[in-house]
Structure formats: structure tokens, C-alpha cells
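Office hours follow-up: a student asked to see two folded examples consecutively, so here they are.
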Amino acid sequence: MTEPATDQPLVSVVIPTYDESATILDLIGQLSESLPRTVTSEIVVVDDDSPDGTGQAVAGYIERLGKHARPLVRLVVRKGERGLGSAIVRGINESRGRYVVVMDADLSHPPSVVPRLLEPLLESQCDVAVASRHVEGGGVVGWPLTRRLASWGATELARVLGLGVRDPMSGFFAFDKRVIQGIQFYAIGYKILPEILAKSKGLRVMEIPFTFVNRKAGASKLSIKIMFDYLRMAWKLFWARHTKPQ
């Protein structure tokens, strides 16, 4: 992992990666253009030791720009560990900003949306800002029918938990780190937002419309195992929410 900079960032962007060498540097470049100039920011890339050289590409970028990079880019490489959820939790734990943005590395989450997520947080209008595909103005482009059905099923299951948002399965969101103080994450499967929504009390949540565009490079990480892990996580959340002492 790279040495931390002395400037304390206000915003941390956490990006979990596995075999995303085709897009990660483009994403970093777009984030550098999109992140607000008025706040100090950092990008935390958590790479699961990608065999395609994703970590090496980020390390090379850091080596070239060093402490002069704005925003600062930091790399965390996990050896012998796999899993999107646990990678996101690691990135959150490594982040130094008060506000954290979580997004994918494949450019399906447009960096241009990040300022729209941060604005209501920075203005204390909400605690969590969700980039939503399921509110007016949002949508999905390029998904096959099987992916749409899987997403619909996962979203409906999340709604059964009573999470109170239209797109609880979004992997693109921002939040104030103070709302997760004391939370022990299951970090099972590929989504962390349902855990934040289920385990934090009194959250003020805003949904910001965006259009999800299917990845143009690399392969989707969605698998039968990941879907099974999500079902396990949903069951654990349901059980915890319905067995608390009254």
C-alpha cells in the first residue's frame, strides 16, 4: 500500500477492482476531472491481486505522479482474498475522508454523477446519497434479459427488508462515515448498501437518478456463488431485523 499523504481528504472514492486493467486508469482520469475542486479528495483502489495487472497499472500511475496527483490515488492490494463486499469494506476502513463514494471500476458508474451525489451530503441534506436506476430519470442500458431478471429479483428481495429506497441494490452511492460507526458488516456477496440501510438508524437518504450503462470491457463478476452469497446476506439481515427484542 502506498504511503498516505499529509493532506487530510474530505472525500474518499473507494473502487474495488479485479481484472479491470482496461478501464481503471480511464476511470481515475475521469474522476480527476469530475471531483469538486473545492474539496480535498482521494481515490482508494482495492485490488484483489488481479492477474491482468490492474494493481500494477495503478501502482505505475502512482509512481509517475506521486504526491503531485490530485486527487491523491492510493492502492491497497489484497493477497489471497476475494469478494466485492469485503473489498469495499476494506476500502472504507482504509479511507481517510469523512464522506465516502463507492463505485465500480468498469465505467458503468459515470464519474460525472459523483458531484451530484456529494452535493447533498456536503450541504447536510442527507446522510446517504444513492445513484438510483429506479427513480424518474434513471435507467439501465445494455443489460441482457437474464441480468435484468437477476437484478429485479435481488431488488425485490431487498425491498422485503423494508430498506425504504427504490434502488437498494445500487453499487454506486455516497455516505457520511459517521452513520456506520459501530456497524459490523457481514460483507457477504457483492452489495454493501443494503447493510448500511438496514443497520443504521434514522438515516436521511436521497436517490439521485442515473443511467447504468453495461460495461464495455472486461467480464461481469456476477456468478451463481455471488447470488447465493447475496441470499445468505439478505437472510441474515432479515433475521436480525425481525428477532430484535421489543
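And the second, which I mentioned at the end of office hours:
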Amino acid sequence: MLLERNILQYPYMNFTLTAALTAFGLFGGVLAFVEVGRRIGIRRMAEDKEGARAGAGAVEGAVFGLLGLLIAFTFTGAAARFDDRRHLITEEANDIGTAWLRLDLLPAAVQPALRESFRRYLDARLEVYEKLPDLEAAKAALAQSVALQGEIWTQAVAALREAPPPATTVLLPALNQMIDITTTRTMASKMHPPLIIFVMLVVLTLIGGLFAGYGMAAAKTRSWVHMLGFAFVMGAGVYIILDLEYPRMGLIQVRVADQVLVELRQSMK
């Protein structure tokens, strides 16, 4: 997706700055639209005090209802994808750990070479995500891990020719799962809402600010608490959604879950 490609080109600090600037820009935009809406409301009430609010409630309800639905949709989706990515890290650690343990079924003479390949493979897998948000470096590490998958598979197939039959039935499925989970994790990291969803969220937020200001026109003075509070909540909400969508580049991080892979690597003596 366009948004994903653009964001992934930025280093960590630039992404954080971009997300923060987006939130501050939305904050300022909402304040401006609230003020515009208030002035429109004041002018409308001066022209037609009785009819100024006619039908406004239905329109405001529809706009804010859709805005609330869209925020709930994007936030819930981002949080769910964040949890899925953490779960997949644990799943990969389990798959690699299971395959590592099942190497014990192979003849002792062929185990050292395979175990060393496993160590290099796990190092490469850790490097894939340590390199992010440097997309090119992450791709290079991913290519290295894929090459090591082929090497491990070739070594395992050759070793199984000298192993008892039960080893084949338990080791190969474990290797398959270890390889398949890498594709699952890669695709999960690329899953984000279409760009139009974020655009619509920003547009609806600004329109909501316009109607909020229109509703405040009856007051003689500006309610800065409501104006600033509404703008802050909307800006902060969009910032958190973006941070959850890209948890390896912002303030909200999924890297703590990588510790399970680090601990597995430390156990591979």
C-alpha cells in the first residue's frame, strides 16, 4: 500500500516525527474548523435565530456516529493486528524450539552441522526485525534467512537417510512449520487498512469539528475547554492508531516480544 511504502522508507525518528506532526496538524485543523463552524453558526443565528438549529441534530448525529464507528473500526483493527504480531513471535519461537529439540532423533554425527545452521538461522530471523525500519537491510536479512531455510532442509533430508523412520515423521513437519511461520509473520507485518480509511478518518474529524463549532454558536463566549479537549482527543487518537499500525517504528513497540526468540537463541548451546 502507498501509505505503508512511504512510511517504511523513513528511519525511526522520522516516522515518530511524522506521526507527531500529523497529530499536531490534526489538532490545529480541528481547532480551525471549530472556529469556522462557530462563526458560521453565529452568522446563521443572526439571520434566522429560530431556524438556525432546524435539522442540525440529525446531521450532527449522522456525522459523529460515522466518525465514532470509523475510529472504533481503525483502533480495534490496529490493536488486534498488534496482538497478532506478538502472538506470531511466540509461535515462531515455539516452532523453532520444537524443530531444534527434534534434531536429537538424528544420528549424533550429523547433528552439529544442523545445529550450527539453526543458530545462524535464528540470528538471521532476529536481524530481520532488528533492522526495521530500514527496509532494505531487513529485506537482505530476510533473504539470508530464506537461504538458510533451504540449507537446513537439505541437511535434514540428507541426515534422515541415516536416521530411523520415526525421525522423518516428526522432524519434517516441524521444519515445515518453522518455515511456514516466516511467511505468516511477513504478511502480517504488511497488513494495514487502505489509505482511504485514514483519509476518511481525517476528513470526518475535521467535519466533526465544523459541526461542533456550529453547535457552540449559541454561547456568548468560546468554550476553550471543549474546543481544546475535542481537538486534543482526536489528534491523540489518530496518533495512537498510527503507532499501533506500525509497532516497530513508533513509541508503541512490539520488540519486547522478541525477547522470547533471544532467550531461545541463548539456550542453543
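Two things to take away from it. Residues 1-13 have pLDDT under 50 and may be disordered. The longest helix spans residues 56-102.
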